[in-house]
Amino acid sequence: QAQLVASGGGLVQAGGSLRLSCAASGRTFSGYAMGWFRQAPGKEREFVAGISGSGSSTYFPDSVKGRFTISRDNIRNTVYLQINSLKPEDTAVYSCAVAQRLEQLQRRMYEYWGQGTQVTVSS
Q1: How far apart are the C-alpha atoms of 108 and 112, rounded to whole Å?
Q2: Torsions phi, psi for 23 (to 5 deg)
Q3: Going along 45-91, which residue ranges are E strands?
Q4: CA distances from 80 to 16, 59, 64, 69, 119 (A)
Q5: Residue range 34-86, pLDDT digits in tens
Q6: Measured between alpha carbons, how far is 105 from 51 in angstroms, rounded to an integer?
Q7: What are phi and psi of 102, to 5 degrees?
């Protein structure tokens, strides 16, 4: 059974950086789009980064563009999210997801969903 496990979250000061990882097991997801969502208490889930199966295309909403970078290692079956210049409003649980196409993730559609990792940014 496929499983996605996110890690790398923590407590950081504003302006700092974090690198989140999401490791997949149970099957390979090369060729599938992978992405990251976040959800803060009392707020809707937000899609913050996505990468196509080949890694040639990425997507970021305007709210994080320029600060978030997504990459993948298909040999390790892992997707990464680099977050720079962290802001208190980035505080949320970050979860990874998999879909056949990047466009599906943009529409909040996914086939696999992983456990999240907490990111807390202090001001």
Answers
A1: 12
A2: -100, 130
A3: 46-51, 58-59, 68-73, 78-83
A4: 17, 14, 15, 8, 14
A5: 999 999 999 999 999 999 999 999 999 999 999 999 999 999 999 999 999 99
A6: 9
A7: -60, -35
